[in-house]
Amino acid sequence: xxxxxxxxxxxxxAQLNLFFAQTGMTTLAQRRxxxxxxxxxxxxxxxxVRVMAxxxxxxxxxxxxxxxxxxxxxxxxxxRHKVRVEPVQIGGVPGEWVSVAQADPTHVLLYLHxxxxxxxxxxxxxxxxxxxxxxxxxRVLAPDYRLAPENPYPAAVEDAQTAYFWLLEQGIxxxxxxxxxxxxxxxxxxxxxxTLRESGAPLPACGVCLxxxxxxxxxGESIRANAGLDYLNEHMIRAAVQMYIQDHDPHEPLISPxxxxxxxxxxxxxxxxxxxxxFDDAKRFAQRAKAAGVDITLELxxxxxxxxxxxxxxxxxxxxxxxxxxxxxRDHIDQKTKHARPLANSARMARDSGPAPPRSEMPRLPLLRxxxx
Length: 373
Description:
By secondary structure, the protein is an alpha/beta fold. It folds into two domains: 3-72, no CATH class; 78-340, Rossmann fold (3-Layer(aba) Sandwich). Helix content is 42%, strand content 15%. The protein contains eleven helices and nine strands. The chain has helices at residues 3-34, 43-55, 64-74, 126-136, 155-169, 184-199, 222-225, 234-245, 279-291, 316-339, 346-352; strands spanning 84-90, 93-99, 104-112, 138-143, 177-182, 206-210, 268-273, 296-301, 368-371. The protein has a nine-stranded mixed sheet, sandwiched between helices. A hairpin with a 2-residue loop joins strand 1 and strand 2. Helix 5 crosses helix 6 (184-199). The radius of gyration is 20 Å and the shape is globular.
């Protein structure tokens, strides 16, 4: 890194720290006058939401770098746990392994990051990925899938497929694989499962979707109802849709899984906050999935914003949600492992369709959790 690059980087960090400090002071002053915006919002959490809102462009004709640059900066938070990060080529797709000391090498969580299909990377999401690796006690494979507008739909779906089949080729049994993702990555999680089901490929043990984006037609009423509460805004979502789908119909099932035939999918956990702009995507999808016979659990976090799990350092609701992910994943991996038939080798596994690590001792903390009826 050159001296000029280092100087520019130091200036960016200084500007960002100044913005954080100013936002924190503004939040504190407003809370003294008006109280918290929501009863369960701490000063730190409310400040973090304001920071995200302040860095999110909110105007017509947004350019992609207006989204990417601040998003990448604000999410480059150091990982607080000891994790091992290893770069890897995943069948031609770059990515990284993230693992903790107790991870079982035979169990893998494939994590598909969010960012509206136009921003983000495994590096951007490393803090959240590391925490999920810790609570699930699994190795996490995070592909750096291609982004729009340079690589519009279906590039992200193709790269997710590549990553999944690469895991099978490495000898990882499908019943030992979990697919998870947030926001666009949540939609991509289900899109991947739909392509696997249609091709007759073996499905993973289960899936986890955090604040998923399931409807790129933008028909969800929460986009309007939660405006001004969430840090997301309609202008940014609309810009991401246009960059990603371009000439495609937003109702296509692999673009908007809300409109797909959902039969035959593995068990799914969906988590969403009630003031998330995409809250209705989670609710409507859960209802349709239940009607299609999917074993689906919807967890709602009161007054939480989009991908609230990312704020686990300042939010007890986020910490509880991540712990619930650990319990859900371990329960389903244990069930699948118990009933799995041994396969001769990875080649046979890819064609035809170890013991689980010890379960976490963390208590099950209360979210609004229910099977969808």
